[in-house]
Amino acid sequence: MIDLFSFSLCLFAFNGFALAKFNHFKDVFKKRPTELQRTLLLAIAWISILLSLAICVETQSGYGGLLFCGFMSLSILIITIFYNLLTRLVKVFSVLNAVLITVSGLF
Amino acid sequence: MFSFRRNKGVRSWLDAHNLSSVLALPFHLMITYTGIITLIFMLFPYPALTTYDNGMRGFFNDVSPSNNVTNKAQGSAAMMPINTILDQVYTKWPDADIRSVRVSEPNMAASTVTVLVDPVKALRDQTPRLLFSGATGELVAQSDDELTNSKALYESLNSMHTGRFATPLLRWLYVLGGIAGCVMIATGCIMWAKRIRERNKGKASFGLQLVEGLNLATIMGLPLATCAFFIANRLLSPTLSGRDDKEVTAFFLAWLVVGVIALIKRDKLQWRVMAAINALACLSVPVVNALTTNGNIVSYLMHKQWALFIFDALFLLFSILFLVQTEKLRTATKAKHTLSSSRSNTNKRQKA
After folding, report:
1. Which of A96, B19, B48, B258 is most buried, by CB atoms within 10 Å?
2. How many domains does chain A have?
3. pLDDT per residue over B135-149, tens digit each?
């Protein structure tokens, strides 16, 4: 479960990084993000990704570091697929991601 | 970083190249550096050659657990009960998860029992092990519990490269990184050739023709060569001498044939033909396996032999992907012909 929690945090982070870009935000929300929105998204993304790294390393040491790198790769692949092929599902995906973080974090 | 523009010609190839590069960048850095470390004794053997009288062999004998007790034992002897050995294992490592037990020269005085224990996600390549005399049950050798700094560094970097310590999750992430690396190389090669061809307005120099031929030979030839290797493994007689060399020969022969064809002709039709041949070859691997052995993809699934099942399943998946490639190349060629014929019709009408 801890692996799922770390991965979902990593995925959430890259979702934030993607939304912080003008073109991707506009594709999803049909308008450009404000500077405040961008800053907020980046801040949340950085906190999320650092938290994911910390959890991986704290629970599984060197193995966790390696796993984190793998989680980053898989997250980028998933985000790329959603933002280029399934743009209309990004909002649903984001909500599901948040739910996954909550569920995996609780258990 | 996340953009991928489809059906935009060279820009699509560039996006695919950028994405696949960035996607597994940490993996690429790690696998490259640890690959050098794995081969360090081959690349830089001089410290061992100067320190040990018998060179590298002396060095490896020094760092690996060695057996000096039972080697000289002669004659036959009854084996000790395995519980005697297991008691010693669990006394040393109470939570040991025994991976395997190897017995050599059973019922002989020189017999040994090696117990290998799962390192449990530790970054170690050499599995922790205890070596016992099979006749007396005495512990004769063991791997180091506490590694020196240099040994720990080598072990951890080596283990990261081989990935033998990894659980299935991390192994699949390694596969993702590996495939991303292949996509990075392939898209880079194709994009470069397309750009040069566009810049030269369709005229190809000898260098460009060579690069296009090598692209086809490598990108389509290597998968076919891999299939040839595994098919040869199944079709060659088990008693054939030099069997392993012949499997390797099959690999390079298939690659050579594709290479020669690619250097003669390298247009889109050739890519389509190669894709179709690859689809057939990938399909053949699990089929030949099913016909020549007692197992097949269904029996592997039923008996939960996951490694064998996934192997066959992946080859079937690649067969489907090559079929998709064949179809895409066919429709792309058809679209190009339709576009060029409509353009020539428009020109004719304008002239008229």
Report:
1. B258
2. 1
3. 888 888 777 666 778
